[in-house]
Amino acid sequence: MFIAATIALLITMALTLTRALLGPTLFDRLLAVNSFGTKVVLLIAVHGFMTGRPDFLDIALVYSLINFIGTIAVLKFFEYDDLGSGAYQEDDF
Amino acid sequence: MDTFIVLVLLTFLAITAIGIIVLRDLLGAVILLGVYSLTAAGAFVVMDAVDVAFTEAAVGAGISTILFLGALSFTRHEQKPRGHDSWVALVFVVVTGGLLIYGTLDMPYYGSADSPSQTHPELAVRYIQESGTEVGPPNIVTSVLASYRGYDTLGETVVVFAAGVAVLSLLGLRRRRPEDEAPEDAPGDIPAADPQDSQRRKV
User: Fold this and answer.
1) A:B CB pairs within 8 Å
2) Spatial distance between the Cα atoms of B177 and B181, rounded to a whole number of angstroms
3) Domain boundaries, chain B
4) Is B84 left (phi over 0), alpha (psi -120 to 50) or beta?
5) Fewest CB atoms within 10 A around its CB: which of A30, B6, B135, B168?
6) Class at the top of the CATH hierarchy for domain B1-79
7) A33 and B66: CB-CB below 8 Å?
8) Residue B43 burial (C-beta neighbours within 10 Å; 0-12, 13-18, 19+)
9) Average pLDDT over residues A71-85
10) Domain boundaries, given as residue ranges, for chain A
11) Contact between B43 and B13 (Cβ < 8 Å)
12) Which of A41, A90, A36 lies closest to A62 in space, CA to CA?
């Protein structure tokens, strides 16, 4: 059963990767990349249970956190065209 | 099954790398680099190299994406179209890659039972039996990385630190003012070719 789940995950990863490569707009790419990261997290979890060693689940959790941070950084770049801009700058200058 | 998963993930890596090369949109390329790092990290986990996978995910997908975005805020989002492709560069890259692959032929195969670290009479036994009392952490890999191979890890950390300092010195530490957004005088800025460029950069 875990083998079937793994194969399904790999197919889904191929589909999201296709969208990330073809995506006409940047938002398509970003959404595809975000779901691709989720699929990697799921793949690590399923692979852990498939080999009988679910000890690597915490790594999957860290990956999902990193994926989230990366998406937030890219979205902030979309919004401000800069990573350092924010309300605090008015006080500094 | 593991070999199959690793093969599929490596295929994804190759496809992503080609996509990054072909893509002219730099922001899209940075996003795809995140896919590349996450796929590589997943392959490392499947191959049981958990510590390498951890570093790859934290540095490749986490920090370097943010560093690339910081660099992008000083340049345009489109790669400058070139009239010709440099054959010298292509030959150079192919030769360097071939030499690197030739160098890996000397290394023991993946999971090989007669690699030098496996055939050494005392090494693995010493790590398994003594690292708990000698170093302390229950994880042997942590003991090897942080204590037995501590200078090696220190050297790696120095390399990463030097790279960070180099990036900071290129980008400059001065923050931009909100009202004066055009970074003409920023230290790491490429000189703007015409006024339209700086206009386009603001959008």
Assistant:
1) 118
2) 6
3) 1-79, 88-148
4) beta
5) B168
6) mainly alpha
7) no
8) buried
9) 75
10) 2-83
11) yes
12) A41
**Which DSSP state fits B21?**
H
The tokens for B115 are: 């690699």
Is pLDDT above 70 for B79? yes
Site of tokens 């630190």: B161
A63/chain B closest Cα distance in angstroms: 7
CA A44/CA A58 separation, integer angstroms: 10
pTM over 0.80: no
DSSP reduced 3-state for B30: helix
ipTM: 0.82
d(CA B45, CA B52): 8
CB-nearest to B73 from A29, A47, A81 is: A81
Q: B47 or A84: which carries more pLDDT confidence?
A: B47
The radius of gyration computed from the CA coordinates of chain B, to the nearest angstrom, equals 22
Both tokens of residue A14?
A: 């191929």
